[in-house]
Structure formats: C-alpha cells, structure tokens
C-alpha cells in the first residue's frame, strides 16, 4: 500500500464516537490538572528554587497568562489549519514544558515550563469544536457537557493526586507525571481523533494576534499581581491601563480588516455576548470557592479553621469534581429537552445556594463538603451550558475561535477571583505563630462576594435569548 492510499484510508476510518469523546475528555482533565499541579508546593517554592516569593509567584502567573493568551489564538488556528493538528501541537507543548520544569534546578526553567504547560488550556475549547464536527447531532450536547465538566473535574481530582505525589516523592515528580500524561494524550489524539476536514480559508491575522496577546498580558498581570504590587502602584496601573488601551485599539483594528483573528461582530451577538459575560461570573464563582474552602479547611483550629492537611482538605473538595462528571450526561439531556439556557440558570442557582448554605452553616467539615457538592452541581451545569449556547449562535467556521474566546472569559473570571478573594483574605488577617492567617470575617466576606457574583450570573443567564440561531448547522445535517 502506498502512502497516498494509507492517508485516504486514515481519513475515511472513523473510530467509535464514544472513544473520540473519551480521548478528548482525558485531554480536558489533563488541561485543568495543570492549574493545581504546583498547589501542594506553592508555599515552599521560595526555598525549593532559592528565589524570592515575588519571583516564585510567576510559577503560577505564567501558567495563567499563557493559557489565557493561547486559548483564543489556538481556536482560530484550529479553524484554519485543523483542530486535531493544533491539539497535537498543544499536547507537545505540555510534554516539553513538563520536561523542562522537571529538569530545571532554578526558577527560570520552571517558569518557562509552566508557561508551556499553560498553553494546553486551549485543549478544551478545541475538543468541544471537534465534537461538533465529528459527532451526530443527537450526541453533541451530552459530549460537550462531559468535556466542559473536565474544566472543574481535573482541578478537583488533580489536587489530591498532586498532594499525594509531593508528600511521597521529590517535587520534580509532579512535572514528570504531567509529562507522562501529556505524552499519553498526544498518542491517543494522534491515534483516535479523526483529521479535521472543516477548515476556514484565509490568512492568519498576525497583527491581531500580537495585539490580543499584549493586551491580555497587561490586563492579567495587573489582576494577578495587583495584591503584591499594590492596586494603585505604578506597575499595576501601567500594565492594567496599558493592556486595556491595547485591547481597545485591537478591537478597532479587528473590525476593519477582512480576515480578523476573532470576528467581533459574531462575538457581539446578544446570545454570545451575554454567555461570555456570564462565563466571567461563573469562572469567578468557581475559583472563589477553590481559593476560600481549602484555606479554611487547612487553617489551624486555634486560628478558626479545621486543621486538616492539604491532602485531607483536597479530599473534601474533590467530590465537587466527581459531581460535575456524574452530572454531565444529565446536562446533555436537559439541554436537548429544554435548551442550554435553563441549564445555565440551574447552575447559577446552585452556586447561590452553595454560598448561602456556607454563610449559614460552616462550623463542621461535612457542611463544607455539602457546599462543595453544590458548587460542583453549579459549575457542572453552567460550564456545560456555555459552549452549547455559543455553538447555537455562531457559524460552523467560527466554532474554534468562539469557544476559545469563551474560555478566555472564564479565565478572566478565575484570575479575578484569585485576586479579589486573595486580597480580602489578606486584608482580614491576624498573626498566628508569626504568620498572617485569614480571619473568620475574611472568609465570610469572601463567601458573600461569591454569592453576589453567582446572582449576577443568574441575572445574565435569564437575559439570554431562548431561540436557536438559524445560522448554526451541524455538519451531519443536510443543507
């Protein structure tokens, strides 16, 4: 058999659809796992890397910034050059970054490696877009719900895994494990996921890419480092306002070229715009819980916490991820029956109940377990609904870029939550054995903020139009 015949057979061979979904779900789990990878060693990084705490903060910041910048860009590249091909590039980036971080004795290599790991965040929106291309319409919603759930599941399940590894092995081991996961994902995607055949013609917008990257880096640096630099410090104001100005100029430019990186006219459609704004609120509500709950569980009993180890605290948080995974098939059925808007509404209501329950009952560990389960329900429903709402409102040629933009808005929500909740807990703190620790009042204010943002998500969800956009068509349907 010659090479051309082999390629033709490869293109016409369609693996079982369930297997494709499973591989893309594994990619999503690996993607979200990267955010909790270094949590168990974060406080020890200055000692491990022989660097200042300000410098080691970049080990986390670099992942956040790289993921936010790469996600919408990789979505556009997937639309143009093939989603599977770009997914493979991102998986290779994950492997390379993991190896670099694992072999690096100093901070520079670890930061570079973490940035390359962060690029793999683009795997989830790309996976969702692949599902729309290759699955039958009857299976798309349930599959999207599953892949979307991995955004929360990977973090919830990954935290106890990384805690277990770091407690029993050298800290470099977590990066070797991440590299092995990335290699498995690369092989499975190459073997199982079919080659993309739906492409968007045109030239890649390099100027728009640079403008978006510069603007996002400025905004995210101001948000993520504002607590440390000071919210009115020259560095914070320069990066934040400078990034905002660059994004305004970027938007002006994108509206005036024939082949933009992101079609802002599509993004401005009411269902898409409102869904993206809701994504910020949902991302904030999720990460507010990720910041506050583990801290109160790990805080010493004498300081008002529960005195759990990191591993024990992560096991209390973990059921939220399990709930997200279990709910994913039900999310798809609800969306097919009544539409994804109701799913988003239910998700916001569940988050409101979770924070309300925590404000009333937070004196026992089991009560925080219940609250985390409610958070899992809210994020499971909400994250499943958002890509469905997006894909019902954008043309087939824009699915990758539009899902990437939606993921970007979620990232803005999570990074904002980390900054805001971190600032609240740092402000309401007292000295305990020479170390500042959050007070009960700080946690209460954090839960109030999370609940208020969940209410905002509910209001926005109620404003999203119900109808399915007539421009959206599934590739398996006849024209």
Automatic annotation (TrEMBL):
Transmembrane regions: 20-41, 56-74, 86-105, 111-131, 143-165, 171-192, 204-223, 229-253, 273-293, 305-330, 342-362, 368-386, 407-430, 442-464
Record bears the keyword rRNA processing: no
Protein name according to UniProt: MFS family permease
One GO molecular-function entry: transmembrane transporter activity
Residue span(s) of domain Major facilitator superfamily (MFS) profile: 20-469
Gene3D superfamilies to which the protein is assigned, alphabetical: MFS general substrate transporter like domains, Multidrug resistance protein D
Species of origin: Microbacterium thalassium
Cellular localization per UniProt: Cell membrane
Keywords for the protein's UniProt record, in alphabetical order: Membrane, Transmembrane, Transmembrane helix
Membrane-topology annotation of the record: Multi-pass membrane protein
Top-level lineage group: Bacteria
GO CC field: plasma membrane
InterPro entries noted in UniProt: MFS, MFS_dom, MFS_trans_sf
Keyword Transmembrane: yes
Lineage of source species: Bacteria, Bacillati, Actinomycetota, Actinomycetes, Micrococcales
PROSITE patterns named in the record: MFS (PS50850)
């Amino acid at each position: 058999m010659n090479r051309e015949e082999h390629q033709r057979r490869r293109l016409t061979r369609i693996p079982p659809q369930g297997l494709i979904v499973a591989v893309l779900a594994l990619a999503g789990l690996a993607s979200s796992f990267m955010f909790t990878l270094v949590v168990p060693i974060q406080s020890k990084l200055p000692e491990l890397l022989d660097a200042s705490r300000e410098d080691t903060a970049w080990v986390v910041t670099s992942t956040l910034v790289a993921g936010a910048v790469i996600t919408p860009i990789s979505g556009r590249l997937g639309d143009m050059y093939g989603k599977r091909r770009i997914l493979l590039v991102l998986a290779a980036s994950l492997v390379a970054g993991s190896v670099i971080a694992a072999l690096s004795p100093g901070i520079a290599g670890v930061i570079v490696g973490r940035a390359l790991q962060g690029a793999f965040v683009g795997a989830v929106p790309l996976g969702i877009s692949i599902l729309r291309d290759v699955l039958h319409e009857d299976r798309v919603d349930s599959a999207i719900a599953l892949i979307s759930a991995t955004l929360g599941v990977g973090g919830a399940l990954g935290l106890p895994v990384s805690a277990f590894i770091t407690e029993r092995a050298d800290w470099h081991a977590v990066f070797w494990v991440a590299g092995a996961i990335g290699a498995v994902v690369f092989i499975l995607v190459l073997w199982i996921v079919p080659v993309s055949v739906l492409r968007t013609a045109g030239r890649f917008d390099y100027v728009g890419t640079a403008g978006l990257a510069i603007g996002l880096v400025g905004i995210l640096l101001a948000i993520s480092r504002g607590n440390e630099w000071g919210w009115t410090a020259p560095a914070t104001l320069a990066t934040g306002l400078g990034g905002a100005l660059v994004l305004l100029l970027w938007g002006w430019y994108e509206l005036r070229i024939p082949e933009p990186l992101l079609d802002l006219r599509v993004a401005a459609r009411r269902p898409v715009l409102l869904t993206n704004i809701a994504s910020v609120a949902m991302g904030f509500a999720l990460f507010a819980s990720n910041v506050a709950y583990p801290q109160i569980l790990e805080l010493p009993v004498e300081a008002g916490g529960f005195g759990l180890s990191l591993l024990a605290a992560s096991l209390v948080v973990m059921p939220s991820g399990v709930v997200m995974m279990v709910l994913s098939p039900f999310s798809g059925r609800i969306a097919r029956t009544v539409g994804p808007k109701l799913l988003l509404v239910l998700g916001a209501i569940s988050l409101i109940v979770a924070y309300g329950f925590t404000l009333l009952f937070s004196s026992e560990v089991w009560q925080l377990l219940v609250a985390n389960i409610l958070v899992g329900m809210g994020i499971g429903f909400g994250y499943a609904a958002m890509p469905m709402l997006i894909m019902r409102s954008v043309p087939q040629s824009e699915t990758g870029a539009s899902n990437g933009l939606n993921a970007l808005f979620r990232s803005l929500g999570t990074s904002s939550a980390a900054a805001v909740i971190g600032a609240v807990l740092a402000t309401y703190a007292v000295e305990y054995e020479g170390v500042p620790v959050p007070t009960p009042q700080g946690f209460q204010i954090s839960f109030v903020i999370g609940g208020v943002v969940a209410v905002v998500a509910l209001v926005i969800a109620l404003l999203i139009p119900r109808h399915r956009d007539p421009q959206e068509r599934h590739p398996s349907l006849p024209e």
